[in-house]
Write a structure and sequence with these properties.
Elements (H helix, E strand, L loop, with lengths): L4 H14 L5 H20 L2 E6 L4 H4 L5 E3 L1 H10 L4 E5 L2 H10 L4 E3 L15 H10 L5 E4 L4 H5 L3 E3 L4 H7 L4 E5 L2 H10 L3 E4 L12 H10 L4 E4 L5 H5 L3 E2 L2 H11 L3 E5 L3 H9 L4 E3 L13 H10 L8 H17 L2
Parallel strand pairs: 1-2, 1-3, 3-4, 5-6, 5-7, 7-8, 9-10, 9-11, 11-12
Helix pairs in contact: 1-2, 2-14, 4-5, 5-15
Bound molecules: 1,3-dihydroxyacetonephosphate and iron/sulfur cluster (SF4).
Length: 329
């Protein structure tokens, strides 16, 4: 696609915003896609929902809403658009479909998965329920619709503790993230039965690295996602969902910060917080990075990669997400 003068003019305000982190040479390849996608989404009454881990050209260039998984689920339930394009991973697109089953939900790359989601199946949850009869199941939203269909209530990293406490029980099955389960256990008196899933991005961080960064950057604020190992969270100043971390930076405006999470997020947040210096990790989520502008355009043009589920699964799984959104953040 060509970087014509029309494209240059139409996309200039976006480039002004992201030029700080994106070289001009790269912009000339992104801009024609951004221009075409933005035109087409209006014509088709489509909404583009993007997770905070998407690359800056997606996050700042074409997203109508860029947010954490809780806000994306809520937005999906409220939208008046005819078509939802999820720039994120498969479980996020499934969740959007559950929240709005009559809408067409498209995922630009169907192989964009998640190590947590693929660590457990609906059958595994059935077996856990047999082993622990009567114990409620709380599932992280990073799970398939089959798992959600066997779940009492979902949660995200933004509300996991609140959701567990809301059940007013002594014991819960909390799955599939073992580290998030440990984080929740540290914040509540409820006994947690966990599953051995991990996020391939967050499990790579370690306490030694965090301590070294703190030593080499006096005064730095270190903020971590609760999918990190417990010693990483203990060595950090704050733990929260991706949006929780963004709000921390916006509110506190630290001189220097490290966001212990997927690294595109630091690029995205840096643009809106020019006075904050970012020490950037280089852990990328290979699934999130499968979403690219050419794939988004193809999906929007041809309406391919539609999320299809049976009505039975939609009905069962939706209940667990709706119970969560009723409680909120
Ligand atoms: P958030 O819900 O915090 O956006 O996290 C989703 C995710 O996949 C983190 O790895
Ligand atoms: Fe899944 Fe981790 Fe990627 Fe988030 S960052 S989508 S939890 S693999």
């Amino acid at each position: 696609m060509e970087f014509t003068s029309e494209v240059k003019k139409a996309t200039e305000p976006i480039y002004q915003k992201i030029s700080k982190i994106l070289p001009e040479i790269e912009w000339s390849t992104h801009a024609p896609y951004i221009h075409k996608i933005n035109k087409l989404k209006k014509e088709k009454n489509a909404i583009i929902l993007a997770h905070n881990y998407q690359t800056p050209e997606i996050y700042h260039g074409i997203a109508d809403v860029a947010a954490d998984s809780l806000a994306l689920a809520i937005e999906a339930s409220k939208t008046k658009a005819d078509l939802i394009i999820m720039c994120g991973v498969h479980f996020m697109a499934e969740t959007a479909k559950l929240m709005n089953p009559q809408k067409k939900v498209l995922l630009p790359d169907m192989s964009a998965g998640c190590s947590l989601s693929s660590s457990i199946t609906g059958k595994d949850v059935k077996l856990l329920k047999e082993k622990y009869p009567g114990v409620p199941v709380v599932s992280y939203v990073n799970t398939s619709a089959d798992v959600k269909a066997e779940t009492d209530i979902c949660c995200t990293s933004a509300n996991a503790v609140k959701i567990v406490n809301s059940l007013e029980v002594k014991k819960v099955i909390f799955l599939p993230d073992d580290y998030l389960a440990k984080y929740v256990a540290s914040q509540t008196d409820v006994e947690i039965i966990s599953w051995k899933g991990t996020c391939i991005v967050h499990e790579q961080f370690n306490e030694k690295e965090i301590k070294e960064i703190r030593k080499n950057n006096p005064g730095i604020k270190i903020i971590a996602h609760p999918e990190c190992p417990p010693d990483v969270i203990s060595a950090s100043d704050f733990a929260g969902s991706t949006t929780g971390m963004i709000r921390y930076v916006e509110k506190n405006q630290p001189e220097k910060v490290m966001m212990v999470t997927e690294c595109s997020m630091s690029d995205n947040v840096q643009i809106e917080n020019p006075n904050v210096k970012f020490v950037k990790p280089c852990n990328l989520c290979p699934h999130m990075k499968k979403i690219t502008l050419p794939k988004i355009l193809n999906c929007l043009e041809n309406e391919t990669n539609e999320i299809i589920m049976s009505n039975e699964i939609i009905e069962k799984a939706r209940l667990s997400v709706e119970r969560m959104t009723a409680i909120g953040r």
